[in-house]
């Protein structure tokens, strides 16, 4: 079988546009267990609403002025606008304005703490002799990297300056699609064939350094740099993301309902269509369109019902097509079956951790098995098992 060829180029999507102004925002909580506000409290843009217990995950903030109307384990719901005062009752006190934070002159450790408090995850910026900026679109049908490099260069360079303080590299490289003239200050541009899965970080490292190891290399995306640059420009918490939808590039506030984004883009999903946060190969289908945009979202894709054969629960037929397209050179069919039957140690023996989660195996699967989803489940389970084991050992000391 010939390997599928997916272009990573999308062409001109026009100027970056402002996203919708929604009356209600739903801020996703992904491990942000430390709630810092209560229901009926007033918030302003940048108000801290939830902290993450991990030191390397950015905290969550309100993107709008409004009032908290619901808090649960999955999201914080804020109704935008200033509430009308109740006759005969004093007005509720408003939230204090958020003061900008300067990142200038901070030591590396203090800079990491400041970034976490501003909603940026420092985990992407590990010390390394080589820093690579991945300027390729994440996957087919997503044009965010092209847009940012073409239209937000000043913001990216501000972000790069901060990233260099964190990574402390001797060499800084910019991976760009072959034929592109995109540049960033202090970077040496290197061309990469704009064909998926060449945009995946390990393959970018291979293309630029010749190494099949991430050791000594830190890779950051232009999306990471944009968020870092926005924080450096404003001094305020990061409460937005840039995503592509329907051929348009939108700056969208975190928590904006997906339905509002689709409406602004002029897209009305038909019954049976799948709405995917991300691209068609690596993205995750959403269960409801009132779900809020997350900080790491880079695209919103609508997959028509008849575009692909439906996923099934059929058994693997051992055709081997998944192994032929796998860029990690593992056996996705075997790995997925081990996960399916809860044989997680065997999945580890077959190098599940080497999977880049490109999604090509599921795309070519003759039996239409959900290979990527099985592998993601296996990785998550093994990670939870390792965390539980570590906790037990610490308790025993």
Please summarize what this structure is.
The chain is an alpha+beta fold and 397 residues long. It has helices at residues 108-117, 144-151, 153-167, 201-209, 222-234, 258-264, 321-325, 332-340, 344-349, 360-364, 371-396; strands at 6-7, 17-18, 24-28, 34-35, 42-43, 48-51, 60-61, 66-71, 75-80, 130-134, 171-177, 188-192, 195-196, 217-221, 240-245, 248-253, 274-277, 284-285, 300-303.
Describe the structure.
By secondary structure, this protein is α+β, with helices and mostly antiparallel strands. Among the domains are: 108-232, NADH-ubiquinone oxidoreductase 51kDa subunit (Rossmann fold), CATH 3.40.50.11540; 239-303, Roll (Ubiquitin-like (UB roll)); 321-396. Helices cover 28% and strands 19% of the residues. The chain has eleven helices and 19 strands. It has helices at 108-117, 144-151, 153-167, 201-209, 222-234, 258-264, 321-325, 332-340, 344-349, 360-364, 371-396, and strands at residues 6-7, 17-18, 24-28, 34-35, 42-43, 48-51, 60-61, 66-71, 75-80, 130-134, 171-177, 188-192, 195-196, 217-221, 240-245, 248-253, 274-277, 284-285, 300-303. The strands form six sheets. It has a four-stranded antiparallel beta sheet, with no helix packed on it. The protein has a four-stranded parallel beta sheet with strand order 12-11-10-14. Strands 2-16-15 form a three-stranded mixed beta sheet, with helices on one face. Helix 3 packs across helix 5 and helix 8 (332-340) packs across helix 11. The radius of gyration is 22 Å and the shape is globular. The mean pLDDT is 94.
């Amino acid at each position: 079988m010939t390997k599928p060829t997916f272009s990573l180029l999308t062409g001109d999507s026009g100027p970056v546009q402002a996203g919708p102004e929604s009356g209600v925002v739903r801020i996703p909580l992904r491990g942000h267990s430390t709630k810092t506000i209560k229901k009926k409290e007033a918030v302003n843009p940048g108000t801290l609403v939830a902290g993450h217990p991990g030191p390397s995950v950015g905290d969550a903030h309100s993107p709008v002025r409004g009032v908290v109307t619901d808090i649960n384990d999955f999201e914080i719901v804020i109704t935008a606008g200033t509430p009308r005062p109740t006759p005969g009752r004093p007005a509720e006190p408003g939230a204090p304005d958020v003061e900008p934070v300067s990142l200038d002159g901070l030591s590396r450790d203090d800079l990491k703490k400041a970034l976490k408090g501003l909603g940026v995850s420092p985990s992407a910026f590990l010390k390394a002799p080589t820093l690579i900026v991945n300027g390729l679109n994440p996957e087919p049908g997503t044009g965010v990297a092209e847009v940012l490099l073409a239209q937000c260069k000043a913001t990216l360079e501000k972000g790069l300056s901060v990233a260099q303080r964190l990574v402390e590299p001797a060499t800084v490289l910019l991976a760009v699609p072959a034929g592109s003239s995109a540049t960033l200050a202090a970077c040496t541009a290197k061309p990469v064939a704009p064909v998926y899965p060449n945009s995946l970080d390990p393959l970018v490292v291979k293309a630029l350094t010749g190494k099949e190891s991430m050791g000594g290399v830190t890779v950051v995306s232009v999306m990471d740099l944009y968020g870092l640059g926005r924080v450096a420009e404003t001094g305020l918490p990061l409460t937005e993301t840039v995503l592509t939808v329907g051929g348009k590039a939108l700056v969208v506030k975190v928590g904006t309902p997906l339905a509002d984004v689709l409406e602004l883009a002029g897209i009305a999903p038909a019954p049976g269509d799948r709405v995917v946060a991300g691209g068609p190969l690596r993205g995750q289908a959403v269960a409801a369109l009132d779900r809020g945009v997350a900080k790491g979202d880079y695209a919103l894709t609508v997959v028509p019902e008849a575009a692909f054969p439906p996923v099934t629960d059929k058994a693997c037929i051992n055709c081997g097509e998944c192994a032929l397209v796998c860029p990690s050179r593992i056996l996705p069919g075997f790995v997925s079956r081990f996960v399916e039957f809860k044989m997680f140690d065997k999945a580890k023996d077959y190098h599940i951790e080497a999977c880049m989660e490109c999604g090509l195996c599921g795309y070519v699967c003759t039996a239409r098995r959900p290979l990527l989803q099985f592998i993601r489940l296996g990785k998550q389970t093994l990670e939870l098992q390792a965390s539980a084991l570590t906790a037990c050992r610490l308790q025993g000391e």
